[in-house]
Amino acid sequence: MESDHILIGALIFIAIIIGSNVAMYYYVRSWTPRGRSRWMSALRDSLSKPMQSQANKSMEELRKQVEELEKKKNGQ
């Protein structure tokens, strides 16, 4: 009997969470004008590009230097 109450409470909690997510989704969709959701395309672009951190830049410089050294080595 007590486990039934826990199960019902968990189902109600899950339903509340799903319902609030659906409500917020429709609220945000109605807030942005149709066809002009630049924030979605900007978010998609930023997630698809690798992060340009200082470590990535220094590794790119290192790769270029290694390539130059290999060209000099093969050229001599």
Topology:
Blueprint: H1 2-31, H2 38-48, H3 54-75
Task: Explain what you see.
83% of the residues lie in helices and 0% in strands. It has 76 residues and is mainly alpha-helical. It has one domain (2-33, 52-75).
In brief:
The protein is mainly α. Helix content is 83%, strand content 0%.
What is the helix/strand order? HHH
- The count of domains is 1
Helix content bin: over 70%
Number of strands: 0
Compute the number of helices. 3
Shape: elongated
Radius of gyration: 27 Å
Strand proportion: under 5%
Low-confidence stretches: none
What attributes characterize this protein structure?
mainly alpha; 76 residues; elongated; single chain
